[in-house]
Design goal:
This protein has 455 residues and is an alpha+beta fold. It has one domain: Alpha/alpha barrel (Glycosyltransferase). It contains 17 helices and 21 strands. α14 runs parallel beside α17. The longest helix is centred in the N-terminal third of the chain and has 22 residues. The N terminus is likely disordered.
């Protein structure tokens, strides 16, 4: 990843909570902690292998399973999302078993519709990262076949994709989309074009991003809903959280992964506008308000946990002090509640959605900050995140969502991204594994490693 200097980092970290200061003083056996992460992954995989093999998502409390992203039909989502994490951890027998399942069972010719965005970042991305790990051409062929079935969604007058497509017929549905689902394709589809020599995938991804970016307001802000047919905005709210997050992330990533200067320019324009219009500093903390995208008027002070990734993105883009400050804002919420709620009102200082969906975004930010400055504080933050998850989210057959962060009452669902994201972030930040290039790498919005594996 790109690296920036440490100048200005200290100023952004002065207002740390006492628990965070204490964490920096702890002595940790990082490789020992990495071993604990690996052991939890191996245990959870064993339960998935025993109770839900080939199913999309295990229910860790009851031992059942649920489907996603195709209703009523399993595509092997969690298995595919876990593959490159298993390889990075050296769980080679488990990795080989998973690849063998894909070879024998993965079939995308299904008469049913899927989310174009979710299927791309999770399944196409998971297959590509597994291919990066082992080089098996079957995995690349499976990724290409699936992307071909998603391509009809991009055949709109604007080039922005419809949200759903039928994998068998190519029929599309729902033109009322959002920046995240418009702009969340280039790393996976650009990689697919590079590996296959077919430019259609990268071209479709680039056209969609440009169409959305060109429709930004005079304040250089994007709202959360847009019509893929007409390009008309359907909402006025600008946010860095859900429905927008991956758009900003992938602007930077297009520059980082492919050296595309146009993507860096677009990233800088958008992030500069966010810092001017949405940044809100209160009580020594940095937060980001939702605002009207045309006037800049504050609409609310609620942030969903998905936005916690933004600290890492700010640091990658050269705003290291701001990124560190924002990550510490979320760390303070974690220290207060134990685990992060799905939504937090920073002005009121209360959770406004009490669930915890096993989100990885704070661990993601800590990992990206640590890659840039190697400050141990980020390892401690990731350690706190892991230990809280192990304490509260561990169930009989794996790791589960929480229904209520105040009571720590468990739900019964393990999202596919758990296998691909935080378990990988924990492992990479603690292990110093020789299988990963810590200076030149790329992880997607879903945590898939598309650059950086060492063999």
């Amino acid at each position: 990843m790109s690296r920036v200097g440490r100048r200005g980092v200290v100023a952004g970290l002065l207002a740390l909570a006492a628990p965070a200061r204490a964490a920096r003083r702890r002595r940790e056996d990082w490789r020992g902690l990495a071993g604990e992460v690996r052991a939890e992954m191996a245990w959870a995989w064993g339960e998935y292998r025993r109770l839900a093999w080939g199913k999309d998502e295990i229910r860790p409390v009851s031992g059942g399973a649920s489907t996603f992203p195709l209703k009523g039909r399993h595509l092997g989502l969690s298995l595919i999302e876990a593959l490159d994490t298993l390889w990075a951890m050296g769980l080679d027998d488990a990795f080989r078993d998973g690849v063998a399942w894909v070879r024998a069972n993965a079939d995308w010719d299904v008469d049913g519709e899927v989310s174009v965005f979710e299927t791309s970042i999770r399944v196409v991305g998971g297959l590509l990262s597994a291919h990066h790990a082992c080089g098996d051409p079957m995995l690349l062929a499976k990724a290409r076949d699936l992307a071909d079935r998603l391509l009809p969604a991009f055949a709109t007058p604007t080039g922005m994709p419809c949200r759903y497509v039928n994998l068998h017929t190519g029929a599309v549905r729902d033109t009322a989309t959002n920046p995240a689902e418009v702009g969340g394709y280039l790393p996976e589809w650009g990689t697919l074009s590079r590996l296959t020599g077919d430019p259609r995938y990268a071209d479709a991804a680039r056209r969609a991003v440009r169409a959305c970016f060109e429709r930004r307001s005079r304040l250089d802000l994007l709202a959360v809903r847009i019509d893929a047919l007409t390009g008309a905005w359907l909402d006025r709210r600008a946010t860095i959280g859900s429905y927008a997050d991956s758009f900003y992330e992938y602007l930077w990533d297009g520059w980082q992964l492919f050296g595309d200067i146009e993507w860096k320019v677009m990233h800088d324009i958008c992030v500069n506008a966010i810092m001017r219009r949405q940044a809100d500093r209160r009580g020594g903390r940095l937060w980001f308000a939702d605002v009207d995208f045309e006037t800049g008027a504050v609409l609310n002070t609620r942030e969903d946990e998905l936005a916690a990734f933004f600290g890492g993105l700010l640091a990658q883009g050269g705003r290291h002090a701001d990124g560190a400050a924002y990550a510490q804002s979320w760390a303070a919420v974690q220290a207060r509640l134990g685990v992060l709620p799905e939504e937090w009102d920073y002005a009121a200082g209360v959770p406004t959605q009490l669930t915890n969906a096993l989100r990885p975004e704070l661990a993601d930010a800590a990992f990206n900050l640590w890659l840039l400055d190697r400050d141990e504080r980020w390892r401690h933050l990731a350690a706190d995140h892991f230990r809280a998850m192990r304490r509260w989210n561990r169930a009989a057959h794996g790791y589960t969502d929480l229904a209520d962060v105040t009571t720590k009452r468990q739900a019964d669902h393990c999202p596919g991204y758990w296998w691909s994201e935080q378990m990988k972030y924990y492992w990479l930040i603690f292990s110093d594994t020789p299988r990963f290039d810590y200076r030149r790498n790329y992880l997607s919005t879903e945590g898939n490693v598309l650059l950086g594996f060492r063999h």
